Structures
1.
Amino acid sequence: MEVLITGGTGYIGSHTVVEFQQAGYDVVVVDNLENSQADVIDHIEKITGTRPHFEIGDIRDKQALNNIFEMYPEIKHVVHFAAYKAVGESVQQPLKYYENNIGGTINLLEILQERHIQNFVFSSSCTVYGEVDKLPVTEDTPVVKAMSPYGNTKKICEEVLYDQSKISNLKVVSLRYFNPVGAHDSGLIGELPVGIPNNLAPFITQTAIGKRQSLTVFGNDYPTPDGTCVRDYIHVVDLAKAHVKAIQFLMHGKYHDHFNVFNIGTGRGNSVLEVIESFEKVSGQKLNYKIGPRREGDVVQIYSACEKATNILGWKAERDLDNCMESAWKWERHLKDLSKS
Ligand code: UD1
């Protein structure tokens, strides 16, 4: 029951390590710590009572990766998060994204093929759907030309995985995440954005705690009920649990194809203003925000149909938006306490 989690000290990765440990798996984490910190491993240990194995390594370095598989010959499953994820940066530095996100995935797949390791869960994104005509989005919605190199790496990796699953014994679940938010109930792990956050939830909590002056709502003239964009905000703990279900499905499930995609969202759309309202309610804080111009590249609205994940993986989101904002706020306050001590 040994599972390798690449990018396991990152935001979604760390929550996923916790869920696998709590489900009884022995976890090996590999991370290059470029966008995360080593003490995440201590915090995971505090939550679960078990320290995951941890190796500092870069997925671009195939030899280093191979050494990790040599050290842990019991690895049977791989959950692959390690990737760059900043949309804007990917536009400025596309090669960096293609090399790490695609090159790293290929290194990993070559090793899996050599070692006959079959079960692979990939961290994909609803960004592969682009702007859609019909909501909620099902997995049958065609994948479109990506709006950024980051999005393109997710699309290309899915294609690479599909092709590889056709000619080898590789079995893949690709999870298309909607908008991950929130943090672990313990307040010990959460999102640690480097620099100014691009994403809404950390920008809200950083504004409320005083790290940022004010939040700008990117546009209120969209054709949505309150004029602001609509997204499907999924609690990171719910999202993490989907990865355990995905591995269990690959081990025991009934499937025809060796490549399977699932939407991982709540099935609910919330506007930017609704997210702010939820935050204000659960935190008791008045948020300083203003309405600004639209952000280039934003889709107007997207939310998931997640019946496929429910019916086939036996997974369903359990937490609501208030819970997302409450845990995100608890985490932000924990970070403040840490910076004082
Ligand atoms: C973004 C990425 C997506 C990626 C996801 C990872 C883009 C175009 N898409 O999704 O590919 O998978 O992050 O989490 O960047 N907003 C504000 N003010 C802010 C920040 C955000 O109003 O300061 C609004 C945005 O306009 C959007 C919503 O909040 O409507 C969510 O934004 P964000 O958290 O950045 O996620 P996405 O853009 O949906």
2.
Amino acid sequence: MIFRQFFEPVSCTYTYLLASRHAGEALIIDPVKESTSEYLAAIQELDLRLVQAIDTHTHADHVTALGDLRDLTGCVTLMGERSRAECVSRHVRDGERLSVDGLILEARYTPGHTDESFSFVLDPEAPSAVFTGDALLIGGSGRTDFQGGDAHRSWHSIVGRLLTLPDATLIYPAHDYQGRTSSTVGREKAFNPRIAGKTEQEYVEIMNNLNLPTPRLMDVAIPANLACGKS
Ligand code: FE
């Protein structure tokens, strides 16, 4: 399998390019508009054909590359069924499987950070990795104070829908602010300070008292992303 993890330093966003083989079809998860040329260079270098571009949720901190990638490569754009982005060509349901050249991803509805967040499990028959967007971060979780966020739902998504995957499943989040590139289900169960040894009520307390500043780009990014980054 071909796997590339890209890092966009302004918003600390991770983007993932996946393909089953050299010269095959590829998909990309959570691409950032400013990095589009970097993705295209990698796609060309590996002789891939991009067929799907996925956003895990409507990002508030950066503008998506979905629209640009669609225009430049003809790929299908895809989000979860609760997304209000009318521009995407396909909305996936919970449990639906995406198949690209032998690569299989299962869409899993994981609300809480937003009310429309999805995660994607690679190799659902024997999970090897999960792309969690901001539903679950390394040693943290995505804020729950806007875009239909809800700390109770976040807890249930994390504890009931992500950390129920096998312990060795790799976790690839949409962000990390400390340079960590992946984790595992087992590690997050044992060490995520918001989750390990905590009750739902304790988690909700933590999330409701984060007092985070509003993302700098939020007023630009959300409307732009509802138009796939094209407005
Ligand atoms: Fe987010």
